[in-house]
Specification:
Radius of gyration: 14 Å
Helix content: under 10%
Number of helices: 0
Mean pLDDT: 94
Order of helices and strands: EEEEEEEEEEE
Shape: globular
Number of strands: 11
Low-confidence stretches: none
Oligomer: single chain
Strand content: over 45%
Distance between the termini: 40 Å
Length: 119
């Protein structure tokens, strides 16, 4: 079983920055993938960014490229999502997710952390 513990959400003005953290605990494998998704009110959950633990490959959703930066601390099994130049449309509940291999679905999810960007 895997547990994901998120932190770092909050309220920020447009143009500001926040950093989200997600720490994984429990059983994981060397090929797991960690990701961030977000869900705005009335919208479906969408992919934001992901990182492969085996090779460090990172993917970003187009609207966050150049503004969000995903990084990791391998010793802590923690990923960080640095969000700069935030826009009101970034307002959402952000969820950390993990899948055990690149070809499996995201089976493990955090509780979500609210990010609100005021204009």
């Amino acid at each position: 079983q895997v547990q994901l513990d998120e932190s770092g959400g909050g309220l920020v003005q447009a143009g500001g920055s926040l950093r989200l953290s997600c720490a994984a605990s429990g059983r994981t494998f060397s090929s797991y993938v960690m990701a961030w998704f977000r869900q705005a009110p009335g919208k479906e959950r969408e992919f934001v960014a992901s990182i492969s633990w085996s090779n460090g490959r990172i993917y970003y959703e187009d609207s966050v490229k150049g503004r969000f930066t995903l990084s990791r601390d391998g010793s802590k099994k923690t990923v960080y999502l640095r969000m700069d130049s935030l826009k009101p449309e970034d307002t959402a509940v952000y969820y950390c997710a993990l899948k055990l291999t690149a070809s499996t679905p995201y089976d493990y999810w955090g509780q979500g952390t609210q990010v609100t960007v005021s204009s």
